[in-house]
Amino acid sequence: MLSYWHGVRENLALALDTLRLHKFRSLLTILGVLIGTITVIAVSSIIAGLDAQLVEMAEQYGTQVVWVYKLQMGAPHRLSREERLRKPITYEDAQAIKEQCPNVQEISVAIFNEIGEFGLPPSTARYKGREMSGAQFMGVDANYLALANSSLADGRFFTHADDIHRRDVTVIAANVVEQLFPLEDPVGKSIVVDGHVFEVIGTLNKFKGFLGDNPDDRDIFIPYWTYKKLYPAAKDHFLSVMAYRGRMEETQDEIRGVLRRRRQVKPTEPDNFGMATAESLISEFHQIIGTVALVMVVISSIGLLVGGIGVMNIMLVSVTERTREIGVRKAIGARRSDITWQFLLEAMTLTGAGGVLGILAGVALSVLIRTFVPSLPSTVPLWSVVAGFLVSVSIGLFFGMWPALKASRLDPIVALRYE
To answer: What is the DSSP letter of 206?
Structure first.
């Protein structure tokens, strides 16, 4: 056993000597492995960061909340004719869910003009000489704040009395405050939204989006029944339903049963409405990430394949250059296995060095991304470091096998005569 490890150390020392003697050639040889490893580390760090941020954001929305809309929520997709013609969720649907679903703790209703291809119809808000276009204007009930990923910065939110009496009051998001009230307190002031005057009674803290502060945080909320008073034809509803803790599956089953009955869906037909939870959105994101990861593997594999072919080529050249050395080693008692391991370890040291350099460069790139693009999360997962190193070493083992076997099969007498 001691002689075995002594042989390994000796072969490893020879491999390191070769690296030192041929620095530039070694660098060119491992360039493909280096690029492939950098790709793996950099992309996996971005994916891991995005995944962690998505989970955090979804949990802020609430792991006990079910969102209900006439369309399925998640990644954008081309709407079918049936989806375009679907009737909206109604206020009466929300009341039925509240009354008929024992596992529902609370429910909130939002109303707006029908969502188009690019989201809510944009509205224009004005205060004195300032104007903000692209505001997202909707009516919500008094329960909205308890179920939304938001909190009050100043003032108050609507009460049931504000809603029932259809008062012309509003609560505005942080970006609306910044654009319309950069130097003054908005609470108590009046703004004009699409020609209607509302008193600002509260403001919201910045909404944390997927990549930091959300630039689309431009919401202007008014009471539900106030919105119905101003826009009697509006009928698109979005429901946020909070389940009792630990009762999510039962709650979703109950909601589905109520809506299928009310919307007269036959037992053999699929749902004609959409439901989503934080968990389902995270799962969908993971599927998308899986596709990205597959593309990443293909791209990095090309670099690793090129690097492996380069290693095989250089090792074959090395065998030719050192034919006489191989003959001398065999003449003084080196076995075929010793020669094989000498060249295998040299190839693995080459690609392993490329892997280490790629890991260091990938980590440095991840730090630069996190430093200069703070909105794009980047964190290097341990598995990518381990995988990057093991794969790079394996490339050397695989592509170094043929040159190593060729060297071990040389006839010592012929090798000694080689010039």
So the answer is: P
pLDDT given at position 120 = 62
Q: Which of 147, 130, 141, 195 is nearest to 171 (CA)?
A: 141
141-154 residue pLDDT tens:
998 888 876 788 89
- Would you give the DSSP letter of residue 244? P
Euclidean distance between CA atoms 107 and 65, whole angstroms:
9
**Listed residue (366, 348, 367) closest to 356, CA to CA:** 348
Which ranges constitute the DSSP H helices of 160-215? 160-164, 174-180
Q: What is the pLDDT of residue 49?
A: 78
State the Cα–Cα distance between residues 412 and 418, nearest whole angstrom.
10
**Alpha-carbon distance 54 to 210, whole Å?**
6
pLDDT in the model for residue 58: 67
Q: What is the DSSP letter of 216?
A: T
Between CA 239 and CA 262 the distance in angstroms is 15
pLDDT for res 19: 66
CA angle 2, 341, 14 (to 5 degrees): 85
- Alpha carbon distance 353, 361 (integer Å): 12
- Does this model's pTM top 0.90? no
Contact 175, 217 (CB under 8 A): yes
Choose the most confident range, by mean pLDDT, from 13-22, 73-82, 255-264: 255-264
Q: Residue written as tokens 């490339």?
A: 395
Name the residue ranges covered by the structural domains of the chain.
2-56+284-417, 63-276
pLDDT reading at 54 higher than 80: no
Unique residue bearing structure tokens 């944390």: 208
pLDDT for the residue numbered 168: 94
The residue ranking higher by pLDDT, 98 or 49, is 98
User: What six digits make up the tokens of 23?
Assistant: 């620095």
The overall longest dimension of the chain from CA atoms, in Å, is: 105
Half-sphere exposure of 362 (CA within 13 A, CB side): 31
For residues 166 and 112, give the distance between their C-alpha atoms in angstroms, rounded to a whole number: 16
| DSSP of 58-121 | HHHH-TTEEEEESS--SS--PPPHHHHTPPPP-HHHHHHHHHH-TTEEEEEEEEESPPBTTBSP
Please give the share of the chain, as a percent, with pLDDT higher than 90.
Answer: 22
